[in-house]
Amino acid sequence: MARMTDLPDWERQHHLDKIAALPDYGVTPYVSGPALNRRRVAIVTTAGLHVRGDVAFEVGSADYRIIPGDTRAADLVMSHISVNYDRSGFQEDLNVVFPLERLRELESAGVVGSVSGFHYSFMGASPGHTLETKACELAGLLKKDGVDAVLLTPV
Asked: Which residues 6+ apart lie within 8 Å of 21 measured at CB?
């Protein structure tokens, strides 16, 4: 993983500027709902994953890819653009960025109610303000699928 201290000044400042540009959502209120063992869970990642054969992510991509829950690990590709991202963990164990196997284990153990049949990936190197439209679209898909808990894996 790249450390801020290892980056050239111009690139370090670029990343710090992105943080400063994030919107302030204030304090998020507690939202009640069913117990975790009754919730339907989906994964949303910013790992730039997609099913082999789908369109790869491009620089500045603000869209997402749908990953069916029965997709084999060998059929997932990471087209994350950032050169600062260490892909070795993903190459050794998909669960590092897309913990579907761990989520299924939690379902089997009764910790979560069910696992969604679909999961989603954005590319994390995209400017945050460009993602809102697609994030709202995705929220509608999750709601239609009965998902009431999301496991976020930011990369």
From this structure: 127, 128, 129
**Token code pair at residue 1:** 């993983």
Residues 6+ apart with CB under 8 A from 20: none
H-run or E-run covering 86: none
50's tokens: 């997609």
What residues does each domain of the chain span?
4-21+37-153
- Token look-up 């761990």 returns 102
Structural Rg of the chain based on CA atoms: 17
Tell me phi and psi for residue 76, to 5 degrees.
-100, 140
pLDDT tens digits, one per residue of 73-106 = 889 998 877 666 676 777 788 888 899 999 999 9
- 28-34 long-range contacts, CB within 8 A, separation 24+: 33/148, 33/149, 34/113, 34/148
Distance between CA atoms of residues 16 and 90, nearest Å:
26
